[in-house]
Amino acid sequence: MVAKDRESDSYIPFFTALSKSPAAGNAEEANNALVSAIGESSLACIPGWTGQFCENPICSSKGTVTPPNQSIFGQLVDMVSLPKCAGSFQFPYDSLSDYAYINVQSDGGGPVVVLTDSNGTIVGSVEAIGDQTSYHVFYRKLLPGTYSVSVKLTLGQANYCAVDVNVYSNVSIRTGFVSSAQSDVPLDLQNGISGLRSYFVAHAFNLPSPGGLSSVLIAEDGSTAYRTTLGKRYDCAYDSFAGWFTCKAGSRYIAKVDAIDYNDYPLRRSVPFLCLQGTTTQVPPVITQCSNGGTLLYANTPDAYCYCPVLFTGHSCEKALCMNGASPNSLGDACICPEGFTGTNCQGG
């Protein structure tokens, strides 16, 4: 049986706790250990959650979601700033896109885009135009796959190159943030609210099955701030979600959502958003220590939280997860075991 914390919104499913692990390997080990410990047992989920490990929210009331407007440049795939216009970055081109448009803005240097495929072969364009501080190029009939973008300067030097990659496609993604895992109404369209811990949610339009969303990377002012896999929500318009995220007022963000199209090619869409100054709200007390061997992450910050070991959950890992048909005691910190089982979680037989 999964224990419930003091408030329903503070109930932390396994997915959320593990998604913010500082090391993906640790999360995978924890998941494997959890599956091994549970064996054939099933968890009795509290209302609002479902799934084998109660990791999937069920929305309390299904909302609505509308597709974003496609700009004249298409759907944004990625946006990267290259200091001194040096280096390169990769982006996926899916099988559902018609053609690509890459735009570069710099403070000089006469930038020119160099696009190469996965074999390192330079890809020719159908149309390109540029000047001392910008370059615009179109590519048609690209094969699905991963491409690399770099910038060559033809007229001296530059301090930066801001590069954005766009595709013409019917596949689009709407993103947002909700205050609880069961809410289907974003707080402010796609924008975050400063200091408010919220769940990232997303929905893909015109992405045929078996394609689907897989992960999100959120960059803050050009640097990675958050990266995690996406889980599923049920009876929700925004049917994909990730664990808690908190933004900072005044910072600029971009959510890069990765997916797989129905032909099994990688797909990405990106959504810039702001962090708005919110009104004063009641927030949970900052965690200073964890129980049952939990690890305190982001200590002495508003984002501090406990990364719980296998078989414990809760705000500070104070709640025991009961195995083999056991039930929690009155405090929820240990389990009352049926005959033949022992241990804090009744995991031993």
From TrEMBL:
S-S pairs: C337-C346
Key words of the record: Disulfide bond, EGF-like domain
Pfam short name (any one): Ig_Irg-7
SMART domains: MD
InterPro entries in alphabetical order: EGF, GBD_Irg-7_N, Ig_Irg-7, Innate_immunity_reg, MD_domain
Domain of life: Eukaryota
Chain ranges of the EGF-like domain: 313-347
PANTHER family: EGF-LIKE DOMAIN-CONTAINING PROTEIN-RELATED, PROTEIN IRG-7-RELATED
Protein's name in the database: EGF-like domain-containing protein
Taxonomic source organism: Plectus sambesii
